[in-house]
Amino acid sequence: MMDLFKFNSIEIRDLAVSTFAIALIFAWNGGSIIPIINMNFIITFIVILIAVGTGFVLHELAHRTVARHFGAISEFRAWYNGLAIALVLKILIGTTFIAPGAVYIWKDYLTSRENGLISIAGPLTNVALAIVFYMFYLMHIPIISDIGYHGYYINIFLAGFNMIPIPPFDGSKILSWNPKIYLLTTIPLAYLIFFH
């Protein structure tokens, strides 16, 4: 079994680049070739970087750790074409669409249950982080509340986005493993995304 917490230099680079790019996309209003750099943007970027850094990185590491627990080789790889597409969409139409990369898993055979547990680990990590960030938001302390606000919404967004039941999203693997668990996870997330 691989060391659960061992990283190589490629993984560290890809996680860092993806985290920076996602934070830029969330912080940037879009509609221009480059973001307007001012103090407000810098503060927003730093706040979102903290929120994204925890949400995105821990989501991917949850997949990676559970996969390694089941004896699979697993490493994160950035999808640089996806990051470029996300930046172009932000420039042209100001929309946020993110496909930064994924944890790639190699094993001769994974059961449906193992695959489902690996897949659900990421969104559940985001839900747990959203609860923590919401508590920060409720403190009503400048900067900390801002981090809490952005951390909550980014983590709910990441969890919900990844529960889309279409391959290669996590939701498709969870649904094929256990439809009841898929619904128990997705219905509350859908409520939080669309009605909260």
Automatic annotation (TrEMBL):
It is a multi-pass membrane protein. It comes from Methanococcus aeolicus (strain ATCC BAA-1280 / DSM 17508 / OCM 812 / Nankai-3). One of its GO terms (molecular function) is metal ion binding. This is Peptidase M50. Belongs to the peptidase M50B family. InterPro entries: Metallopeptidase_M50B, Rip2-like. The chain crosses the membrane at residues 36-58, 79-105, 117-137, 149-167, 179-195. Keywords: Cell membrane, Hydrolase, Membrane, Metal-binding, Metalloprotease, Protease, Transmembrane, Transmembrane helix, Zinc. Its cofactor is Zn(2+). Its main location: membrane. It comes from the Archaea. GO terms for cellular component: plasma membrane. GO terms for biological process: proteolysis.
